[in-house]
TrEMBL record:
Keywords: CBS domain, Cobalt, Magnesium, Repeat, Transport. Gene3D superfamilies: 3.30.465.10, CBS-domain. Belongs to the UPF0053 family. Plays a role in the transport of magnesium and cobalt ions. Transmembrane segments: none annotated. Residues 71-130, 137-194 form the CBS domain. Pfam families: CBS, CorC_HlyC, NMB0537_N. Coiled coil: none annotated. It comes from Alishewanella longhuensis. The gene is corC. This is Magnesium and cobalt efflux protein CorC.
């Protein structure tokens, strides 16, 4: 009968597909693998494209992720000191191009609040506003533990309409920060803005022995900067070298030592490395640095 009516087999397959979806949502799934199987089959049948599959998988993965897994590490936080005059703050804003900055008192363990650039510009560009101090614009900071689930944090971001949270460890010390963009990138992949291309291959010195390095930095540029001799036949970028050394796609926070350098993943998604923190061993530090 199916030979005489080719639509019959397709109709049967469609009913089977719909029945499987229905069974997932009407029954109580034992684990998330049931949903993952449905998503994989939908992609194989070309009912959804690969980008949609990755996004759906990202939604499922968010429930497994904690704030410590996606936070911007403390060493990479761009902050403003409460004692800085406005003239010193503006270059920081221009260099980093963020929309929000933690305001600290002496060090990063003492967060006084959050400065939103939009608030600052509103006052700075209004010629009628002469009697104001930038400290008056600082908003309270949201503090969360490292163990905070990211799906719960996203819900709070939406409900309470804030976009940044300061992450603290079990002793109350600041570990880093999380923004709503960090969470969305776990779902949809990297969100690039107009500044990303300009910064893509940067090697930025954060401290005497600590550097922020794009994973896409060409290997010859990295070797020249750090005096290393990674083989350019093994990879085109430093990210390729690090990925090969790990032997798997590392998550944020994972680290590995290669020679005198320690590489810590500071930004990554399920598909690629984006940013690395590179730390020189003390004995490898050049004289005078």
């Amino acid at each position: 009968m199916s030979d005489d009516n080719p639509h019959s087999s397709r109709g049967s397959a469609s009913r089977s597909w719909l029945e499987r979806i229905a069974s997932i949502f009407t029954a109580e799934p034992q684990d998330i693998s049931d949903l993952e199987d449905i998503i994989s089959e939908a992609s194989m049948r070309q009912l959804i494209d690969s980008d949609t599959k990755d996004m759906l998988q990202g939604v499922l993965d968010v429930s497994k992720v904690r704030a410590r897994d996606i936070m911007v590490p403390r060493s990479q936080m761009a902050t403003i000191d409460i004692e800085q005059p406005l003239a010193e703050i503006l270059p920081i804003l221009l260099e980093n191009n963020h929309s929000r900055y933690p305001v600290v008192n002496e060090d990063k363990d003492h967060i006084e609040g959050i400065l939103i650039v939009k608030d600052l510009l509103q006052y700075a560009l209004d010629p009628n506003n002469n009697d104001w101090q930038w400290l008056d614009l600082v908003r309270p900071a949201v503090i969360i533990p490292e163990s905070k689930r990211v799906d719960a944090l996203l819900r709070e971001f939406r409900q309470k309409r804030y976009h940044m949270a300061i992450v603290v460890d079990e002793y109350g010390g600041v570990s880093g920060l999380v923004t709503i963009e960090d969470i969305l990138e776990q779902i949809v992949g990297e969100i690039e803005d107009e500044h990303d291309d300009a910064e893509e291959h940067d090697i930025k010195k954060m401290a005497s022995r600590v550097f922020q390095v794009s994973a896409l930095t060409p290997l010859d540029e990295f070797n020249e900067t750090f005096g290393t001799q990674f083989d350019e036949e093994d990879a085109d970028t430093i990210g390729g070298i690090v990925l090969h050394a790990f032997g798997h796609m590392p998550a944020r926070g994972e680290s590995i030592a290669l020679g005198d350098l320690t590489f810590k993943v500071s930004k990554a998604n399920s598909r690629r490395l984006m940013q690395l923190q590179v730390i020189r061993a003390r004995e490898a530090e050049p004289e005078g640095s």
